[in-house]
Design brief:
Number of helices: 4
Shape: globular
CATH superfamily: TonB-dependent receptor, beta-barrel domain
Largest sheet: 22 strands, antiparallel, barrel
Length: about 725
């Protein structure tokens, strides 16, 4: 009854909006695809596809559109049927090496046009869940094109790191190729300060911390496409990445309860290695009738290893005494095969049928050593091993997803896309815990689009959504948020979240490319939302982990506007704004006697971007403000409530084409040195009993960053 009432409200809003929109329609035009030819970008100084997209109104709204189901359900396994970026009407056979990551490496001179596809069609290589950006390349590419970038970044502590990229693309007969490599600095100096008071509001302690991560990300990509015949083509993609993110950390504790006040130090060293690779390929055959047969495969792996050792000292220069050892390892692999056949069933009706098979595995391990009177073990850093349940294991999922998509052009204005996906999966866990479970789901989806004109469109979507579980939640892991709790228990009995999702979107593109306005209403209703559950061995040893709690809802309004300022005499100036207002409710949280919000649905956010191109000066500049509501995001556990605020960011850039035809760019991030803040309330016993023990307030910042870049295409 609860779900039926809320869906009735949403359906009423859908009908009302459609009726209002119909009265606004003033033209019989129905072609809703927006096209920007190469001539649109001439003289703009664009070097890559990313540069071109920066000059298209409303592009941020399309590329940033995302639906996040849960803080613990990433929904990222397998390939799925949707994508926001196509190249020549095709999706890339890649995940880490996907189309969006290629945009900065495709020269602008190879682009024939950019299409914003707002409709549904069986001719598309993917389902259009929102809007799709299709990059159409020239039929005859230059024999070769070399693009390069050299950059240097200065951080707030004075550290200066170089970086750069190099890409080669072109065509040789039937072969299209793209090779690229890049080195990107990911250095970070995080400064934080925490104060805490006891439950009676007397001072407890302060913690002043400096965390250094000296990291550089190295990536190599390649994409090869070959036309076997006019109707047959193959594509091959490969990626290799390497990141070694060692971390050093120094904390200064001031115990204000001691008399005299006691000061001591903690030093941590965290050497780490991280690598990832991916190989993918696809084959497509087009029949004379217009039907398509396509198959693709993807194989990838991520390997992360880190060791954390903590020392306690009486001065910041002392080596100190080791009191904690944590060693973690994780190897994550995917093997995906997908095949589909697309054909026209009748006039105006297309069907895509296929199946996807995915084998996903994760091997993980966790060792913890602490200082005791017992003898130490070398494998545990010379400390005493801690017996950790469910610390070593392998999680494996075999999943089959047959699917069928029917696209029906009901009339020149109206399109209905109906999708039916079945999921048959088996998840097994071996190692410290042995468990095997089978899951079967049917996931229907309806997407209705009505073009009131070539510029005004209303869309309604109704979908049964099933999230994918995060394998890291199955086994014990390190607690990254709480320095007083080293590890968090896993839950091998987690089940996927099931929800009913409804969305209503009104999209209006202003005449003469003056901008775009977009509003989206969403309502999500869960049956078994994942949150924190109690697994405490006793009242004296409270513990919690991720688990299925019960009903929950999230709803909100996302409004976007992207306007050219021609009416102010600035036709090359573009203002883009996005306002999100949302709310969410857990109905039956076992730790809290009242309903409350949950991540990532905080109250809202505001993003404003101003960009001004000055072709006569070969120059562009811009500024972006990105802010969040200040009441934070909440996580409730059995003995604490944790809330944090995502930091506001102010960034700006200025670039120009200058000496030797190169583009010179100066950009800054976090220019106002905004802080991320968090607060944790700890309780004596269960939080529901209301006996406050401690309040911790922590704020941190990475400071301002300034980068200078030189780019060119040859």
């Amino acid at each position: 009854m609860r779900r039926a009432t809320r869906l009735h409200t949403f359906t009423t809003a859908l009908c009302l909006t459609t009726a209002i929109s119909t009265t606004l329609a003033q033209t019989p035009e129905t072609d809703s695809t927006v096209t920007y030819g190469a001539e649109f970008f001439q003289g703009s100084g664009a070097l890559t596809v990313n540069d071109m997209l920066d000059r298209v109104p409303g592009i941020e709204m399309i590329l940033q559109a995302t639906n996040v189901s849960s803080v613990s359900s990433d929904g990222n396994r397998g390939l799925g049927a949707t994508s926001q970026i196509l190249i020549d009407g095709k999706r890339m056979a890649g995940k880490a090496n996907e189309a969006r990551s290629q945009l900065a490496r495709i020269p602008a001179g190879q682009v024939a046009r950019i299409e914003i596809i707002r409709g549904s069609s069986s001719d598309l290589d993917v389902q259009n869940s929102n809007q799709i950006v299709n990059i159409v390349l020239l039929e005859a590419l230059p024999s070769s094109s070399l693009s390069s970038e050299i950059n240097v970044t200065q951080y707030s502590d004075g550290k200066v790191n170089p970086g750069g990229s190099l890409s080669l693309s072109g065509e040789r007969g039937r072969l299209n190729y793209l090779f690229s490599g890049q080195a990107v600095s990911a250095y970070e100096h995080l400064e934080s300060f925490e104060t805490s008071i006891l439950g009676d509001f007397s001072p407890n302690e302060t913690i002043d911390a400096d965390r250094y991560r000296d990291q550089t990300n190295y990536t190599f990509n390649t994409t090869l496409g070959y036309a076997l015949t006019p109707n047959d083509s193959v594509t091959f993609n490969a990626l290799y990445g390497e990141q070694d993110p060692p971390v050093k950390l120094l904390r200064t504790y001031v115990d204000q309860r001691a008399r005299p006040v006691n000061t001591y130090y903690e030093r941590e060293t965290i050497p780490a290695t991280s690598t990832n690779w991916e190989v993918g390929g696809d084959y497509e055959h087009r029949y004379a009738s217009g039907s398509r047969l396509k198959g693709l495969f993807i194989v990838n792996e991520r390997d992360n290893q880190s060791t954390r050792e903590r020392y306690r000292a009486t001065s910041p220069t002392d080596v100190g005494v080791k009191n904690l050892f944590l060693d973690t390892s994780s190897v994550y692999q995917e093997k995906i095969v997908r095949g589909s056949y697309t054909f026209n069933m009748a006039e105006g009706q297309g069907v895509e049928m296929g199946v996807e098979r995915a084998l996903t595995t994760q091997d993980s391990g966790l060792r913890q050593g602490v200082r005791t009177a017992a003898p130490g073990v070398a494998e545990y850093g010379g400390l005493t091993p801690v017996v950790l349940p469910n610390a070593f294991g392998t999680v494996e999922e075999i999943r089959y997803e047959p699917f069928a998509v029917h696209t029906w052009q009901i009339n020149p204005r109206m399109t209905l896309e109906s999708t039916l996906v079945a999921e048959f999966s088996e998840i097994s866990q071996t190692g410290d815990v042995n468990n095997k479970r089978d899951f079967n789901f049917v996931k229907p989806k309806l997407d209705m689009r009505y073009d009131l004109s070539s510029t005004l469109q209303v869309r309604g979507t109704l979908e049964r959504f099933v999230s994918q579980l995060t394998f890291a939640d199955f086994s014990r892991t390190i607690d990254e948020r709480d320095i007083d709790r080293d590890t968090v228990a896993g839950n091998p009995t987690l089940e996927p979240e099931e929800s009913l999702r409804a969305e209503l979107t009104l999209d209006y593109r202003l005449p003469s490319d003056a901008g775009t306005l977009n509003t989206r209403l969403f309502y999500y209703d869960w049956d078994n939302k994942i949150g924190k559950i109690d697994i405490s061995p006793s009242v004296k040893n409270l513990q919690s982990t991720n688990g299925n709690i019960g009903p929950a809802v999230a709803y909100g309004l996302i409004s976007n506007a992207s306007l050219r300022l021609g009416f102010l005499g600035l036709p090359q100036a573009l203002v883009t704004a996005s306002l999100t207002m949302q709310s969410a409710k857990f109905e039956d949280d076992p730790f809290v006697p009242y309903s409350h919000r949950f991540p990532p649905y905080d109250r809202g956010s505001l993003r404003v971007t101003y960009r001004h191109d000055l072709p006569a000066w070969n120059m562009s500049y811009g500024v972006t403000y990105n802010g969040r509501a200040h009441d934070g995001r909440y996580i409730y556990e059995n003995d604490s409530r944790f809330t944090w605020i995502i930091p506001t960011n102010l960034s700006a850039f200025v670039e120009m084409v200058g000496f030797a035809g190169l583009t010179y760019r100066l950009e800054g991030s976090n220019l106002a040195d905004f802080e991320a803040c968090a607060m944790r309330r700890r309780y004596d016993g269960y939080m529901r009993d209301g006996i406050l023990k401690e309040i911790e307030n922590n704020c941190s910042t990475t400071g301002m960053q300034v980068a200078f870049k030189v780019r060119g295409t040859f």
